[in-house]
Amino acid sequence: MTYLTLLAIGLVAGVAAGMFGIGGGLVIVPALLFLLKLKELEAIGTSLAAMIPPVGLLGAMEYYRNGYINLRYAALVAAGLFLGAYFGARIMIALPEAHIRRAYAGFLFVVALRMLITGR
User: Fold this and answer.
1) Got the DSSP string for the chain?
2) Which domain holds residue 76?
3) Is the pTM higher than 0.85?
4) How many domains does the chain have?
5) pLDDT tens digits, 57-98
């Protein structure tokens, strides 16, 4: 079940990256915190490791050196990111600009509300 959750996190983050240009800080980290109960530093380090090809190599190296990366989790999230970004881009390309703005605002609102309510 954890492996499917990790792949789903990567897929959602990939779709969000393709749609809104975001992923790690707004999707992967909160998902690892809420769904898999990782500690903050491990969630951040794991998110960076998952995104190493495009971003975060030096930061991920420092988190790894200090023992804050779960490599297995990072690899599975990365697999979902790979596919998800493609589908997210395809979805957004097909939408009118007004819908894109509303979708992005709604996404940010839900994330902000969740963090305000739960404190995480």
Assistant:
1) -HHHHHHHHHHHHHHHHHHHS--IIIIIHHHHHHHH---HHHHHHHHHHHTTTTS-HHHHHHHHHTT---HHHHHHHHHHHHHHHHHHHHHHHTS-HHHHHHHHHHHHHHHHHHHHHH--
2) 2-118
3) no
4) 1
5) 777 888 899 999 999 999 999 899 889 988 988 988 898 888
